[in-house]
Every structure is written in structure tokens, then in C-alpha cells.
């Protein structure tokens, strides 16, 4: 079984966990549907890049 050669410091342990935070999704206002939507995603009304792609 592998055993670490040295004790991991508190700073190194905390640095490992810094990237696990919750991120806010990028929202943009869609002029075609008048709603907010996530970037590079189809809006709830079926619009993508100003035109309707889904009914």
C-alpha cells in the first residue's frame, strides 16, 4: 500500500479544494424571445441565435 513520505500541509489541502465552489451560470438576454437564457443554449421558448429551432 502506498504511504505518503511527508505530511500534507494545511495550505496544500485547502488549495486542492479551491476549485470546487459553486459558479453562477452565464446568462444573456435573448432579444428574439425576450427572456434570459444560458449562453450557447436554446431558450425555453425554443429560440437559438435569434431564430426558432424548436416548437
UniProtKB/TrEMBL annotation:
Belongs to the bacterial ribosomal protein bL32 family. This is Large ribosomal subunit protein bL32. The lineage of its organism: Bacteria, Bacillati, Bacillota, Bacilli, Lactobacillales. Residues 1-21 are annotated as: Disordered. Residues 7-20 have a biased composition (Basic residues). One of its GO terms (cellular component) is ribosome. The keyword Transcription does not apply. It comes from the Bacteria. Keywords: Ribonucleoprotein, Ribosomal protein. InterPro entries: Ribosomal_bL32, Ribosomal_bL32_bact, Ribosomal_zn-bd. It comes from Enterococcus camelliae.
Amino acid at each position: 500500500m502506498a504511504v505518503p513520505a511527508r505530511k500534507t500541509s494545511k495550505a496544500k489541502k485547502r488549495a486542492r479544494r479551491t476549485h470546487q465552489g459553486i459558479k453562477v451560470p452565464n446568462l444573456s438576454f435573448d432579444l428574439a424571445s425576450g427572456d434570459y437564457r444560458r449562453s450557447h443554449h436554446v431558450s425555453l421558448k425554443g429560440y437559438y441565435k435569434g431564430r426558432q429551432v424548436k416548437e
